[in-house]
Amino acid sequence: MSASEQNSNEASLGRDTRTVAGLTLVSRVLGLVRDLVTVRVFGDTFVGSAFAAAFAVPNMFRRLFGEGALSAAFLPEYTRLADGDPEKADAFASLTIGLLALATGVLTLVIELVLLGVVLASGDDPERAYSLKLVMVMLPFMPLICVAAILGGMLQSHGRFGPWAAAPILLNLCIIGAALPYFVVEGADAAAWAYPIGIAAVCSAVLQVGWSVWALRGTVRWTTGVSAARGEARLMLVRMLPVIVGLGTLQLNAFMDTLIAMYPNWVGDTVLGYDYPLDESSNAVLFYAQRLYQFPLGVFGIAVATAAFPAMSRVAGDAGAFGGMLRRGMRLSLFIGVPASVGLLIVGEDLVRVLYSGPGDGFSDEGVRRASAVLSGYAVAVWAYSLNQLLTRAFYAKGDTRTPMTIALGMVGVNLALNFALIWWLREAGLAWSTAVCAIGQMGLLMLAARRKMGIGFDGMRGAVLAIALGSALMGGCVYMVGRLVGGGWADGADGSWGRGIAAVVAMTLTGAVVYGLWSIWMKMDELGWLIAKSTAVGSDEEHTHEE
């Protein structure tokens, strides 16, 4: 690879990350608005838990197939074909979309029939039947959004990161639009209103498919002559199974959390004769707390991995360029992930109280305390979740799907064991701490495997990591002091109000951004330059200030 091509790839990582992160930020802000609205419809009740579970089921399939396994197996091959043989790339894309639509459509029908049978057998348990009916309403979201996700991967392969990053905005707008009338309808029932909100989510998936197809116009020629791409399709399917496990660990762990939290709703309040430590509100508490740690992860952590994956696929045959791209992505992930973890640990309880309680309905005081504990557990490892997304994709870019799968299988088992152990002491927060511990362990194992199997060294990152850690610690201290000065006592009703809580959260957030930004400028941290640079490359990552 020529020096100019390498510089172009390196420059594109920061630019594409900025594009994805910017549009994802808009989507996540709308997502917070969505949560502000829906939490005041459902609260920390069995209805909130049921809606969260119904939303989680199709989204698990989306993350595993649409944005996870199939995308990771499809994108490197499609990128290679699009660069060298566009006609075969069109056939490969057409065949993949057709197979995906057929497989997920059949799977949806089978699950719907199974759930219908369970609902008919749940006559003596109306809450279980209600929850499963919600799942049935929202399940068609799964095949539609999986197809949309592959279309989004195709856009990214062609260097068009914006359209798919903007697509989730449609989901948030549809749900907000369906939920808002609840507040003006006299005597509106939250349990009944969950159905039109679920239908709105399914409609948003139709819109996302249409939006993505429209964005691909002139780039892809859809065809029924797909025989030329059968070999590539078989290779993709062979690679899919290990990718499902390797890339989907966080999603599988999160879904297991949902199943454990929904046990009181779907099974009962005892297990082996002992009182179960969770209750019918647990899944709502877990879901809304997850939304807050997923904000920085989705805005930046996954954005880096999304932007880096096509770039790493293109330089997979150049060991030096590949290692430099991976280290650069890791530094960008840590640059945001570490301060995000510190900030959420400090601001978490105030943030939960401001967003999920206050004027109108919403979480009870107990729900706020429980959600804050859950958020603290997840927040510890925001940086690790980000690195796992990137490291896993690095193996896939090299065509190695077995190594991440092996590591992930072990971590899924550890996570399940920790889940069942910790919930007896920490309730829902035990699920969060288990996920965090396993994410950090998985990251360490992936780094060790990358060093041994791909020959990638990380020693040169020590200076950058130290600068990030010190800046995050300084930022955390300043945020804590501002929080004590501006918002002290407001949550306890002493000398304050909900408005004062908003002021405290805003002041702490701005303080954190300013302090960390000034630290980055003072230390001349390359990561900041990579994010704001528009067109010029900044060279190889081994050449800069904080490398040893």
Give the ordered list of helices and strands.
HHHHHHHHHHHEEHHHHHHHHH
What distance separates the N and C termini?
25 Å
Number of H- or I-type helical stretches: 20
Helix fraction by DSSP (H/I, runs of at least 4) = over 70%
Total separate domains = 1
Give, in spatial order, the strands making up the sheet with the most strands.
Answer: 1-2
Average per-residue pLDDT, rounded, comes to: 84
Shape: globular
Structural class determined from secondary elements: mainly alpha
Radius of gyration (CA) equals 23 Å
**Low-pLDDT residue spans:** 534-548
Q: Strand-residue fraction?
A: under 5%
Q: What is the β-strand count?
A: 2
The main sheet comes to: 2 strands, antiparallel
Could you list some keywords that capture this structure?
mainly alpha, disordered C terminus, 79% helix, globular, two-stranded antiparallel ribbon, 548 residues, 2 strands, 20 helices, single chain
Structure, described:
It is a single chain. The protein is an all-alpha fold. It has one domain (3-543). The protein is 79% helix and 1% strand. The protein has helices at 3-42, 46-84, 86-120, 126-138, 141-157, 162-166, 168-179, 190-215, 230-247, 249-261, 263-266, 282-314, 319-356, 365-379, 382-397, 402-426, 428-454, 462-487, 498-522, 526-532, and strands at residues 270-271, 274-275. The longest helix is centred in the N-terminal third of the chain and has 40 residues, at 3-42. The chain is globular. Mean pLDDT is 84; it is low at 534-548.
